[in-house]
Design brief:
Layout lengths: L17 H4 L19 H12 L6 H10 L2 H4 L11 H7 L1 H68 L5
Amino acid sequence: MVPKKKTSDKVPAGTGDAVDSGSTPNIASGNDPTLDPSKDPSQVVSATSETNTIHPTTWSTRVTDQLAQPASEQGTSEDPTQTPTLMEEVETLPSLKLTQITLSQHMDEVKTIHNMSCQAAQLLVKTNESNSAPEARTRTLGTQLIAIREKYLTIARASRFITPVE
């Protein structure tokens, strides 16, 4: 473990030990908080690093944080007519409005495509029905033709043996 340096052990700025010795003042408070003998250095360092940590705030975390706070802490009144609703806040955000418009357009396209596919399916059913009727009739006629040919052959064979009466 490295022994702690005292404030009297400061090294002039510009030397290699200047940062380690604490001679460079903390920009935020004016002095190095790690040199305060009444504070635990590990707590001071964690508090300092916590304040220097960048916390990205997205829209959802901001809304969640706002919903977690009472209205009095948010600076708004308890009157629900005065408090903007979540949907009102959503509608005011330009990027969400653009997304809403885009989704609406896509939904219109999806509905149009769905309607067209339903119409195509109905047309296909009608076409199959209209094609099925002639096919069925053709099969029936084919069956009748086969029966007629068989009868004709029987008649033709029988007629050979019959001599005409004169």
